[in-house]
Amino acid sequence: MDFSTWEPIYEEILKDFGFSRAEDERSASILSGLLRDLDIKRAYEKIKLTIEGRRVIVCGKAHTLIEELKKEDLKERTIISADGATSSLLSIGIVPNIIVTDLDGDVEDLLKANKSGSLVVIHAHGDNIDKIKRYSSKFRNAIGTTQARPFDKIYNFGGFTDGDRCVFLTKYFGAEEIRLVGFYFDDPSVGEVKRKKLKWAERLLEMEKYK
């Protein structure tokens, strides 16, 4: 993702939600410091090898996820999990190859999957600074991302919610095929803010022609 292309979209998101860019940047700076002892380059290369030229299934955390997965051929597929979808995958014995998370899901499940081999992309934004401080240093084979300008070893592959960031990540690293399961953009059970986030995710995926 070229940041000059992403930045106007990012600024629109900030305005729509009333988010603080300064807080996003502060969170990313904290994450960078906490991940400094990890071999970020090695983790980055592992993520690239896991996606590049592969057929990828991106898992959202909609309640339909498990039923949808039953219809998919999972052999020789790279499985990428959006945060809370990880718990559902673990419940049926699937350890995702990659997890994209802002640490909003069950962190113990995220750590369990990471320990079992999942690569982790930890996202920093202004509302998860406490979780960044508490949990990020517990992960291995992890890299950090931001919605703001990337720097040092903090990346920005594009995207806003965990789900659409999975897809942007997958596109960035050149997957051969991308299939989405467990994505429910019109979920009536969610609150107003979550509904707005889902609409943004849908819009971003439509822009990338991945809906």
Number of domains: 1
The neighbouring-strand order within the major sheet is 6-5-4-3-2-1-7
- How many E strands? 7
Shape: globular
Radius of gyration computed on alpha carbons:
16 Å
What is the CA-CA span between the terminal residues?
A: 18 Å
Largest sheet: 7 strands, parallel
Estimate what percentage of residues fall within beta strands: 15-25%
Write down the secondary-structure element order.
HHHEHEHEHEHEEHEH
Helix content: 40-55%
> Could you tell me the mean pLDDT?
94
Number of helices: 9
Q: Which structural class should the secondary elements be placed in?
A: alpha/beta
Poorly predicted spans: none
Mind explaining what this structure looks like?
The protein is α/β, with parallel strands linked by helices. The chain has one domain (3-207). The chain is 45% helix and 15% strand. The chain contains 9 helices and 7 strands; from the N terminus they run αααβαβαβαβαββαβα. The chain has helices at residues 3-17, 21-34, 40-51, 65-69, 85-91, 107-115, 129-135, 162-172, 192-207; strands at residues 55-59, 78-82, 98-101, 119-124, 142-146, 154-155, 177-181. Strand 1, helix 4 and strand 2 (78-82) form a beta-alpha-beta unit. The longest helix is centred in the last third of the chain and has 16 residues, at 192-207. The protein is globular, with a radius of gyration of 16 Å. The model has no long low-confidence stretch (mean pLDDT 94).
